[in-house]
Amino acid sequence: MDFPAIIALSVFILSYIVIISEKLHKTIIALVGAAMLVLFGVLSQEEAVGFIDFNTIGLLAGMMIIVSVIKQTGLFEYFAIRQAKKAKGNPAKILVSFMIITAILSAFLDNVTTIIVMVPVTLNICRLIGVKPTPFIICEIFASNIGGTATLIGDPPNILIGSATDLSFNDFIFNLAPISIISLFVSVFIFKRIFKKDLQQANSIQELMEMDEKSTIINPVLLIKSFIVILLVFVGFFLHGVLHIGTASIAIAGAAILLTIAKVDVEKAFDDVEWTTLFFFVGLFILVGGLEKTGILEYLAKLTFESTGGNVLLTGLAILWISSILSAFIDNIPFVATMIPMIRTFGELSGTGNIDFLWWCLALGACFGGNGTIIGASANVIGVDALKNAGYSISFKEFFKIAFPVMILTMIVATIYARIVLYH
Asked: pLDDT tens digits for 236-245?
């Protein structure tokens, strides 16, 4: 391992240790780590900027602005009251319904957008029924990553794999939707028991049932305008592969149009953007970029293939588990981007005609593995930061103790499914 690789790995590990210790804000740590890679010459300034995924940054910023405008209509309060009344204020029923809704939305939008939309609704409904929102947000994060696995457009790793292969939208649904559904209900079953003590109704149901949700819609004209724009944005997300327009461009265009026609306070809309979250991603992308530039990610990929001796089944299962563990601790986008040419090379060298099994293992591991830690996926960071802004905090260790074991359980289920259903 040469000097740049040692520096890149050391800075990454050190940054991660400090993030876990929570002695400093994670955004400061990520930016300091990124700066160190440039100062030590591991990356040039141009290379560092090149590793920033501006599609993710733009998507997040655009959707945050749109959600900020929608907040001003009262829609989230309306939906919260309606769902709470429908479940008769039962927290457990609300938890299950919100996990299912989140998973479905994530399959056809993307997990980040879904969390941005679901969080304000969840915070409102938890306030109404008198329970802490932390269990709900954790469960929705899990559901968003699981639901995003089901389709070609649900999670960035799937988009990368789809672009690099001839696998279609229907192929993803046919092969990955069943295990996503199974894993979702396994997660629901486990989380209901983990959070059993937290799902106790505190507020009077009579007061809740007497509330008029329609009275919360304070700006119906803005609601109609917002609905039209968000519908166009969602259609754009669904068709972005056909239109050849990035999701960031669609989200930013939607935000710009809505701000133009909504006649709202633009500064307030931008105040609601989670700038600390966005800059955390900037630093994290550069930190992982250092691992990619110095060949560490490529080394791990090659080591995976060499250790299995060319056996397709063993290689697929190794990819499944290695990608899941690594995706819990580093961003899964550069890892998947590195694995794609490695898998292609394996197919050529092994003479194996059909390597679809390897692609499905990569998708499952990268998407499911993101549930393991607070920074395992973009949706996790968004959800946890929203909790903090609402006055509730969950540490890296607390999230890890809850989420990582459940992630491992879903990976065991995914392994059984991969062996029995996907391998043939």
From this structure: 877 877 788 8
Compute the distance between CA of residue 6 and CA of residue 8 in angstroms, rounded to an integer: 6
Say what the pTM is: 0.81
Could you give the dihedral angle defined by the CA atoms of residues 324, 328, 331 and 337, in that order, rounded to the nearest 10 degrees? -10
The Cα 243–Cα 9 span in angstroms is 39
Please give the average per-residue pLDDT across 340-365, as a whole number: 82
In angstroms, the CA 280 to CA 265 distance is 26
Instruction: At 248, list the tokens.
Output: 């960031």
Residue 277: both structure tokens together: 């979250």
Residue 50's alpha-carbon distances to 1, 47, 266, 287, in angstroms, are 24, 5, 30, 12
What residues contact 171, with CB distance under 8 A and at least 6 apart? 356
Give the Cα separation of 161 and 172 in Å (integer).
10
User: What's the Cα-to-Cα distance from 283 to each of 180, 308, 328, 354, 396, rounded to whole Å?
Assistant: 31, 34, 17, 38, 18
Integer Cα distance of 213 and 121 in angstroms: 13
75 CA to centre of own chain: 24
Q: Is 168 exposed, middle or buried (0-12, 13-18, 19+ CB in 10 A)?
A: exposed
What are the start-end ranges of the H helices in 149-195?
A: 156-164, 169-194
Residue 100 pLDDT: 93
What does the pLDDT read at residue 204? 66
Give the Cα separation of 330 and 334 in Å (integer). Answer: 9
